[in-house]
Amino acid sequence: MMQKTQSGSECGAKGSHIRAALRGSGLRPTRQRVALAEILFGKGNRHISAEGLHEEAHGRLVPVSLATVYNTLHQFTEVGLLREVVVDGSKTYFDTNTDDHHHFFIEDSAEVVDIPPGQMGVDDVPSAPPGYEITRVDVVVRLRRISD
Amino acid sequence: MMQKTQSGSECGAKGSHIRAALRGSGLRPTRQRVALAEILFGKGNRHISAEGLHEEAHGRLVPVSLATVYNTLHQFTEVGLLREVVVDGSKTYFDTNTDDHHHFFIEDSAEVVDIPPGQMGVDDVPSAPPGYEITRVDVVVRLRRISD
DNA sequence: CTGTGTGCAAACTCTTTGCATAAGT
DNA sequence: ACTTATGCAAAGAGTTTGCACACAG
User: Fold this and answer.
1) Which of A76, B26, B106, B128 lies at a CB distance of 3.0 to 4.6 Å from A81, suitable for a disulfide?
2) Largest CA distance in chain B
3) Do A143 and B137 make contact, defined as CB atoms within 8 angstroms?
4) A9 CB contact with strand C at below 7 Å
C-alpha cells in the first residue's frame, strides 16, 4: 500500500514531501506539524507571527492549539526551516526565507517584507569584540505611510 | 566635582540644567522626571530597559513607580531625548544616544552596545515602496560569546 | 488654587509551562 | 507498547490603564 491519505487536507505528493523534510530534520511528521508546514511553506516566502499562523490554521479548519503553534515554530527554527525576525518589540515574527537577507517593516500595519538580496549591503561591519563572534547582521528599514 | 544633587530637591547646577532641558521639551520638571533624567543622562550613553531604570532609581533611593518610569521613557522618546531600540522581542530598550548609529546586541547577556558611527554603513538602501517613506534604517550586529 | 503627574493595582498581550490525553512508529 | 507531541488552562513576563491623591506653577 501507499501511505495512508490524511484527514481532510490535500493528499499526495506534497504531503509526503513535507513529511520527508520533517523527518530529515529529526521531527516526527505529526498531523499538526505537517499542516502548519503546508501553510508556512505552501506559497512563497512568508513572515508570520504565532497568532497569525494559529488563525490561519483555524481558517483552514486545522484545529491546532496556540501552544502547539509556538512549539512548532520554535522547533522549525531550531532545525533551520525558519528564521526569527526581530522588528517589533511586542511580537515575534518567523520568516520562511532562511537565506541571508534583510527586511522592510511597515510600522502602520506591522507588516514585514523581504528586501530582495543584492540590493543592499552593509559596509565595514566592525569586527566582533574579543571573545565574541558575530552570529548575524540584521538590517531593518522602517517605513511609514505618507499621509499628506 | 561631586555635587550633591537629588535627595530632597535640586539645588545644583546639574539639576537646573536638566530642568531647563525638560522645560524646553515641554515637560514639567517634576522630581521623578529630573531624577530619571539624571540617571539616564548623567554618565554617557546608555541602553536601558524600563525595569533596569526602575531598579537603578530604587538603588539611588529615588522611589519612582514602574508606571512612571514607563511614562517618562515614552515622554522622553516623544520629545526626542531618547530613542527606542528594537533588538530583542521581549524587552524594549531605550538609548540615550539619539544620533544616527547602530548597535551590537550581545545575546548571552542581552546587552546593547553602540557601534561607533562612521565604522559601518549601509549601501544602496532601496527606495521606499510608493506611498511610503523611510523613517529609519536600523542595523543590529548580533554577538555570541565564543565558548570553546 | 488648578491642572498635570504620580502611584498603585488591576488589566492586557504575548509567550511559556505542567500535566493528562492522544498520536506516531 | 513505548515514546513523543498535543491541548488545555494556568502561570509568567513586560507593558498599559484607570482613578484617587500629590505636587508644580
Assistant:
1) A76
2) 55
3) no
4) no
